[in-house]
Design goal:
There is one protein chain. This protein folds into 2 domains: about 160 residues, Rossmann fold; about 170 residues, Rossmann fold (3-Layer(aba) Sandwich). The chain contains 17 helices and 14 strands. The strands form 3 sheets. A 6-stranded parallel sheet has the order 2-1-3-4-7-8, with helices on both faces. Strand 7, helix 8 and strand 8 form a beta-alpha-beta unit. The longest helix is centred in the C-terminal third of the chain and has 23 residues.
Length: about 400
């Protein structure tokens, strides 16, 4: 199979970039895989460039021509788009359709149905643009705290809703979980063309001989991620300090709240700040900790750190929200609590502390679920199946009577 991966890369590469390259590595052994990558940093250097973009974000004719030129170089079986925003735009799906090339898009965030892609604003879930118009979000400046930039993205959303773009393009969508699929369907994306494929992770214990799952769990809990409000880190620290939890909390990562919270926790011997850590060090920490704490407040995509924890036999205590709720089975391979309810989080932590066997049992089950659902082998089969469905759907569109 000949596959063209397409991606609009942000100045700071994120999870989408990681998944794109993971899938490239996964596929290239059996298939011919090319990449068409366009970088924001190469095209948005000047104020003039950024002003021009205002009028092109909803539909870029030049991008359509560029993709068409690339698709004509070879007879591709499928075009897989990971991100088209802001330079490529949905015009690239027209290019594929006109050349008869099936197209697939992975829905890494909620950009098609919400201007900031997160459905989170000022500490709360924001679903105004799912059932209503995305223009409702403009006056709050939900995207980068800018009314103008929010208006540009809201126009893109409403332009393609009115045009009916998503009713026929791309050939198929990939959602990361059942939760994500349902949200996109609520926002107007046809559910019958949304297929579920989670992210995946190479088995760390196979990739690195120095890594192993520790049979002993230290009296330590971990928070690993962005130190910011939407991640729930403030509530977590308050819970630790006010309730005098008899265990250590180790925090790794960086973010806008780090300095403030470090100052607040100064002198707290049970809270340790690690800063940024190498991946191998993180995996070792996960292996011998009682649990990963994930008190997020927004609709996460599919956090790699949860997959890493599961692969290392570390249970996750997570908010019962977004995609994590589809990854964690309460009291089977992890624990769930209502977002923002620190009393429930404390109850879950205490349940783990009181009986050390709970952490081991949940960790063993987390590892089993990783092996069942999140390995490269499982992901490969699911991805190829979606490509085959996209090809079939495209053929039916060309020959509707058959």
């Amino acid at each position: 199979m000949r596959i063209l991966q397409v991606h609009n890369r942000y100045k700071t590469p994120g999870g989408e970039w990681t998944v794109l390259n993971q899938e490239h590595e996964l596929l290239k052994g059996e298939h011919e895989v090319d990449q068409f990558i366009i970088k924001n940093s190469d095209h948005l250097d000047t104020l003039f460039d950024r002003v021009k973009l205002i009028f092109k974000t909803h539909y870029n004719h030049q991008s359509k021509l560029l993709i068409k030129e690339q698709l004509q170089k070879k007879k591709y079986d499928v075009m897989h788009v990971h991100n088209f925003f802001p330079l490529l735009t949905p015009s690239i799906f027209e290019a594929a359709r006109e050349l008869g090339v099936p197209s697939v898009m992975t829905l890494h965030n909620y950009r098609l149905i919400h201007p900031n892609g997160l459905m989170y604003y000022k500490g709360k879930i924001d679903q105004r643009s799912i059932k209503g118009s995305a223009y409702n979000c403009i006056w709050d400046g939900v995207y980068r705290n800018s009314k103008l930039q929010t208006a540009v993205v809201a126009h893109m959303i409403e332009y393609h809703r009115k045009k009916g773009t998503w009713n026929h393009s791309p050939s198929a969508f990939i959602a990361l979980s059942k939760f994500s699929k349902n949200k996109f369907a609520e926002g107007g994306i046809p559910a019958d063309r949304i297929f579920i494929k989670p992210n995946f992770l190479k088995d760390p214990c196979i990739e690195d001989d120095d890594l192993e799952i520790s049979p002993e769990k230290l009296n330590r809990f971990l928070f690993l991620g962005r130190i910011s409000h939407e991640k729930g880190i403030e509530d977590l620290i308050r819970c630790w300090m006010e309730r005098s939890i008899p265990a250590e909390l180790w925090i790794a990562g960086d973010g806008p709240l780090k300095k403030k919270l470090q100052k607040k926790t100064k002198g707290e011997k049970s809270i340790k700040w690690l800063g940024q850590c190498e991946k191998k060090d993180i995996l070792k920490l996960l292996s011998n900790s009682k649990a990963l704490l994930f008190p997020t407040k927004w609709y996460e995509g599919m956090p790699l750190i949860i997959l890493e924890a599961m692969s290392m036999g570390c249970p996750v205590i997570s908010s019962d929200i977004g995609n994590p709720k589809n990854m964690i089975d309460h009291k089977i391979n992890g624990l769930l609590f209502e977002p923002g309810k620190m009393a429930e989080l404390y109850k879950n932590i205490s349940w783990i502390i009181r009986n050390p066997k709970n952490s081991k049992r949940l960790g063993d089950n987390a590892r089993k679920k990783y092996e069942e659902l999140y390995t490269p082998e499982k992901n490969y089969n699911t991805l190829i199946s979606i490509y085959e469905k996209a090809i079939e759907l495209e053929m039916n569109l060309k020959n509707p009577s058959e």
